[in-house]
Each structure stands twice: as structure tokens, then as C-alpha cells.
Design a protein that fits this description.
The chain has 14 helices and 26 strands. It is α/β, with parallel strands linked by helices. It folds into two domains: about 5-180, Glutaconate Coenzyme A-transferase (3-Layer(aba) Sandwich); about 195-445, Acetyl-CoA hydrolase/transferase C-terminal domain (Glutaconate Coenzyme A-transferase, 3-Layer(aba) Sandwich), CATH 3.40.1080. The strands form eight sheets. The chain has a seven-stranded parallel beta sheet with strand order 4-3-2-1-5-7-9. A six-stranded mixed beta sheet has the order 11-10-16-21-25-26, sandwiched between helices. β1, α3 and β2 form a beta-alpha-beta unit. α6 (about 195-205) packs across α7 and α7 (about 220-230) packs parallel to α8. The longest helix has 13 residues, at about 220-230.
Length: about 450
């Protein structure tokens, strides 16, 4: 038996024992997404009534959170929600859990200084012969280890081994417990692409040059951009992104993306996490071209900006005719989070020849079947502004691309109305006249 296996065995325990180490008043940050430590959390939440004043924080929690998302559990274990999902939105609306707004690049300082987290529970891959355990699919906490007192690692042999600054070593004295829980990791099927998605993608692909470095997320529009790039004849693209979706894998496999002209981490794909198909996870595992780093490093706008010809593409829920974007809420209902949208938008704009896009369909349909514009005169009352009007560079819909950087209020209104759905342009023009963005007849001619 190797030395590292002996250390591993000395820390190996049950999920019940690891959960039993959490005491009243503890503040515990959790691995998220496909690295959510569901096994340990299941046992921790079962003993909620034994505890008082425990705060658990996390981003996209794929764990049995329902066990604590009730009014009677709040005083025992409260969930500090860093990124809302369908699993916890209702609890947020009812005040059962709270939301902490932040930029992804700020996570270490927000979590440690702002929220006081000193313990971490997260899922990792199986240990290798040298004693290293990969943080796997959903990011790591390498950037906060100097601010943490204790780690609990839930080992899952199904977690891929992802390269980069993405490994814990079993000999780290802060690793107090190791628990084994070999369960399937979550996969996400690709979102179907519509004709509208393809039209938006084609607008954006026209702005992506050979050798550009791209940031794509998950969803139909990124999938459509990937498809369009494969058919575009462009090449030598690079990847510097917050998450790697299936679209990036397909671009690499098609020979369109090879990272050869990147000016920061050439020949490598940089990311913080991934979500997608099992095929994607298998492709990422032990792939030497993939380099994951902690989110404060990966999403640092100054690191994003080190990529010449950087192109960032992000989505929004609603945008007003001055360019203010709400990308995380519907009115006062928290839908997701600020995430890395501001980090990458600012970083791409700072990059040499960089471009930052907000991509959105011009309309959406309510559950009652009513079609509404996503470009609006003003945001709903109580709506958080994710991306300020001074940050937005390009906005793309199926009707075109509007450049907002360096534009006056009148020019912004004109540009955004021109890419709104034709059925809503009249009311947007009427509002622009009411607030004196348009005062002459020629202001409405564009």
C-alpha cells in the first residue's frame, strides 16, 4: 500500500460521520453543479433539527435541498443561495432561503470575508497514485484554501479527471474527512435550436474573425453559434470561457477550434466548469488541451482581456432601450444570478480587438400565450440591473446587431428599436418621444 493510500484510508469515513462534524453556528460552502456533495448533504440535512444557526452556501445545488427548504428548518440550517435554479426559486420567493449577489470573479473574497465561510464540502474524482484528487466537472476552491479551516471531500469515481489548477492533495491537513459516494454525474441534453436561434447566431458569427478566442455558455444560441461556425469556413479559433459546453467539443472535433492563435494559454481551452453530455465529460477527462482554474482566476476580467480578439457571448432576460440588462431575475423573482456576465463582458471589451455580445430573441411568449418584447422602454420595478448600459457593447437579436458603446442616449434608443420585433417598434418609439430621446421627425427614421 502506498503512503498516499494510507493517508487516504486514515481520513476515510462514512457520510454520517462527516455530516456529524458540522456544529451549530458553522458556515459551510458547498461544491456546486455536478460536484454537489449530495451524499454528505443528505445526511447533514437529516440531522437539521439537532443544529442551530448553520449557514450553507452554494451556486447551482444538485443535492436534496428540499429537506431544508421549509420555514421550520430555516433556524436550523439556512441556505445561502449564490445561483438560483428551478430547485430553489420558489423557496427564494417565499424568503425561506436568501440570495447573495456577486460577480463570479469575486467569489473568494465574498465567500470568506463577506459571508464568513470556513468549511467546504465538495465532490472530487478518485485519487491517483500520486495522491491527487481532481475537482472534476464543476470547479474548485484552490483560490480559497488559505482562508479555509476544513475540507470534506466526497469521492466519486464517476467524476472525470479534469486537468489544470484543479487538484487537491490528500496530504493537505485541511482535508479532514473523505467519503465515497459513487453515483452518476448529472448530464444535460443539448437544448434544441430554433430558426430564431440560428438567425441570432448568424448575426454574431459575422463578427467572429479567424483566430478569435470565444466564450460560449450553455443553451440554444451557443449551440447555434457552434453549428454556424462549423459551416462558416473560419478556423484557428480559441476557447477561453466560464463553462465548456458540447458546442466547444464539436468545434474542436471539426478542426475549427485549435487554440493555436490564443495569446493567453495558447493551445489550451480555459474554463472554470462544464455541463453537458456524457460524451463531453468523457472527452474532457484527462484531456491535455483542457485547463480548469478557480473562478477568481478564470473570470478575472484582466485575464479575459489577455486574449486578443476575444469574443464573449452572453444572454439576457430583458433589456431597456438604454441598454440596461436584467439577466438574472424576472421582476423581483431571482431566476439565476449575475454569474460571470459582467466579468466576461468587461474583459472582452478590454481585450485587443475584443467584442462583447448580449444575445437575445426579440420576443418571448408567456405561459398564457401572449407574445411580449424583450426590448422594453424600462425594466420592471424591482428588477436588478445585471449589466449596466455603460458595460454593454453589442446587442444581437434575429433582426440585427446594435452597437451601443460610444453611443448617445438617442442613438442607443434608435439602435435597439431597430433590432426589436417590428410589432413592438411603434410603442418603443412612442416612449422615446415621451422622454425626449426623439424630438424631431428625423430621429424616428433609422
Amino acid at each position: 500500500m502506498s503512503r498516499w493510500q494510507e493517508v487516504y484510508n486514515s481520513k476515510l469515513t462514512t457520510a454520517e460521520d462527516a455530516a456529524g462534524s458540522i456544529k451549530s453556528g458553522d458556515r459551510v460552502f458547498l461544491g456546486s453543479g455536478s460536484s454537489s456533495p449530495a451524499g454528505v448533504l443528505d445526511k447533514l440535512f437529516d440531522r437539521a433539527d439537532e443544529l442551530e444557526g448553520v449557514l450553507v452556501g452554494g451556486l447551482i445545488m444538485l443535492a436534496p435541498m428540499y429537506k431544508i427548504l421549509t420555514v421550520d428548518k430555516v433556524k436550523h440550517i439556512e441556505f445561502d443561495n449564490f445561483f438560483s435554479t428551478p430547485l430553489d426559486r420558489l423557496a427564494l420567493c417565499e424568503g425561506i432561503c436568501t440570495h447573495t449577489p456577486f460577480h463570479f470573479s469575486e467569489l473568494p473574497r465574498i465567500a470568506s470575508e463577506g459571508r464568513g465561510y470556513r468549511k467546504i464540502i465538495t465532490q472530487v474524482s478518485a485519487m491517483d497514485e500520486n495522491g491527487y484528487l481532481s475537482a472534476g466537472l464543476s470547479g474548485n476552491f484552490m483560490d480559497v484554501l488559505d482562508r479555509v479551516d476544513e475540507l470534506v471531500l466526497e469521492v466519486n469515481e464517476n467524476q472525470p479527471r479534469i486537468n489544470g489548477m484543479n487538484f487537491y492533495h490528500i496530504n493537505d491537513p485541511r482535508i479532514r474527512y473523505v467519503v465515497e459516494n459513487n453515483t452518476p454525474v448529472l448530464t444535460l441534453p443539448p437544448e434544441p435550436v430554433t430558426d430564431t436561434d440560428r438567425a441570432i447566431a448568424e448575426q454574431i458569427v459575422d463578427y467572429i474573425d479567424d483566430g478569435a478566442t470565444i466564450q460560449l455558455g450553455i443553451g440554444a444560441v451557443p449551440n447555434a453559434i457552434g453549428e454556424s461556425l462549423i459551416d462558416s469556413g473560419k478556423g484557428n479559433l480559441g476557447c477561453y470561457t466560464e463553462m465548456i459546453p458540447d458546442a466547444i467539443m464539436k468545434l474542436f472535433e471539426a478542426g475549427v477550434l485549435d487554440n493555436s492563435r490564443k495569446t493567453f494559454h495558447p493551445y489550451q481551452m480555459n474554463s472554470f466548469f462544464t455541463a453537458g453530455s456524457q460524451e463531453l465529460y468523457d472527452w474532457l477527462s484527462d484531456n491535455p488541451a483542457v485547463y480548469f482554474t478557480p473562478i477568481s482566476i478564470n473570470n478575472d476580467p484582466y485575464n479575459v482581456a489577455r486574449n486578443d480578439n476575444m469574443v464573449a457571448v452572453n444572454a439576457t432576460i430583458e433589456i431597456d432601450i438604454m441598454g440596461q440588462c436584467c439577466s438574472e431575475a424576472v421582476g423581483t423573482m431571482q431566476y439565476s444570478a449575475t454569474g460571470g456576465q459582467v466579468d466576461f463582458t468587461r474583459g472582452a471589451y478590454m481585450a485587443k480587438n475584443g467584442k462583447a455580445f448580449i444575445a437575445t430573441p426579440s420576443t418571448f411568449t408567456t405561459k398564457e400565450g401572449e407574445v411580449r418584447s424583450k426590448i422594453v422602454p424600462f425594466l420592471k420595478p424591482g428588477t436588478p440591473v445585471t449589466l449596466t448600459r455603460t458595460d454593454v457593447m453589442y446587442v444581437a437579436t434575429e433582426f440585427g446587431v446594435a452597437l451601443l458603446k460610444g453611443k448617445s442616449t438617442r442613438e442607443r434608443a434608435q439602435a435597439l428599436i431597430s433590432i426589436a420585433h417590428p410589432d413592438f417598434r411603434g410603442e418603443l418609439k412612442a416612449y422615446a418621444k415621451d422622454v425626449k430621446y426623439f424630438i424631431l421627425p428625423e430621429h424616428e427614421e433609422f
